[in-house]
Amino acid sequence: MSSNILDDSSEGTSSNQSYSENEDVNTESDTKSATSQCGLYTNARNEDDVVIINQIDNVITNEKHLINYNNVDVNGDHAIRKPFQLRKMCCTITTILIGLLLLAWGLVTIVLPIYDFVLIERLKMQPGLPPFEEWRTPSPEVLLRVYIFSVENPAAFLNKTDDKLKLKEIGPIVYKEHLQHRNVEFHRENSTLSYTAHRDVEFLEDRNEPGILNRTILVPNFVLLATIASLEKYPYYFVKFPFQQMLSEEDTLFLNMTVRDYLWNYKSDIVERVYNSFFSFLVPTNNSGCLYQIYSNFEDRYNVRIGAGYGFDHFFEITSMNGATVVPGFQSSKCNASIVGSTEGALYKNRLDEDSVLWYWRKSLCRQVPLYFEKNMTEGSFDAKKYVLRENVYDRFENETEDCYKGFVDRLPNGFSDVSKCFFDMPFAASNPHFYGRYPNELTTKLDGLKPDREKHQSFIIVEPVMGVPINQSARSQSNVIIPKLTYFNEDILRFSNMALPTFWVEYHQKQLTPKIEKLMYFTLFVLPWLQYVITIFLMLTGLLCLTLGVARCMAQEPSPKQLNTPPSKFGTNYKLQEAEITWNIK
Asked: How far apart are CA 132 and CA 123, in angstroms?
């Protein structure tokens, strides 16, 4: 009997092979047929046969369960597991697409650094973001230091005992300048921004010599001398002579006054008389205080360029001030009187290099001035570039028609820039403090006590070049009364002929950034690049992994219909019951 069972098993194996080659199989009928055959032996008298029959019956049940479970549609020998294959195909395609997307994103982070997005957002000046809010109300402290020139030998100079007027520098008188940008308007149609710049100053008691504002100083009567100098362009009998008749013995060429009055409340009898007379056009204001003239109405309306359309090179460049594109008093920019392309010093363009030129506009200078690269340096935690105002910045042009600042009476020598257009056509000129870079010259031969010094008197900007943030900057300039060769006046007045008389000089100094700005810059310049490396590596590795998995799944060999429809049996032999021909020899 055992031999018969073995024979039957071998026959079943051969039947399984023939089944895979048969193209017309009816699973349901074959299963019923096999079941009926097995039912013939339920009356078997041998207990071993009964056990074997039960085992085969269990195999038939498992076979049917597997066919239903795998949802196999048997039609000939083509077995297609439709839902399974569709899910597999979708999953493979999705994995490949994700891998390609991650690789592309990783390549983008290599080509375009993350902090470029920060700089592009800065170009837009979006309200609520740090660049806009820091600009609207600047937090870095800007100190205004004022230096006054007092006279030590007035009598000796007038009686010609001394050939030179001895000057003594008084100061600094320290103020804090407050800058606010008000009435901000965005013009999206042309990518510009309009705002009103308002400036005022606050006296700092703790940074000044006690009682310095009440200190009495002896100074030249520069308002009287400036008025006399302006008369040289008028006829003698129509202007000079009537003016001389207004002078009295009390109208001295030197005045004793306090520092406070000199800066904020400069008034004299001759100024009042001229201001209230027919010659009021010569003195358009009765208060000639040095700082009063600057800050009495220091509000200007600017329009500047913003947005990615102008790019980094033209960010925050001025297009107009108070509706004009030229310096006040000029009608066109045929000479170098244009203010277009300059900046008021609160923001500079990004991506500065050694060829960059920073154009700085300040109304007290009555012009824009260029600062050129000098050197690379380290300022605090940041790599920086230093730009300076060159010594020849106030020199004359070879072509006089292009020189808007050569002077309105006589041609000024090198080192002076006429500012009369911004100060009621009075004969004032700007220069470097102590005439740095151009001392001595033909207008300073009668002056003594001046000590030009590069470290103290040169203007500079130290800027972080990637973001264009000024870290340390000093703007220094001096105001002078330009007195040409005088005629038809007394000897005392004629002593001031051909002379540049310094009145005061100022320094606007921003020395350091606030901790908030430093942290923002540190994050942008140092943290973001490392974060970019991490993100790039993660994206590239993840993308390669997804792409590799997707391609591997796509190239994997699909199982044959024979493998899909042949489940394993308990006996460790693969076979199909439908084609099995089981012959039992029951003894």
From this structure: 10
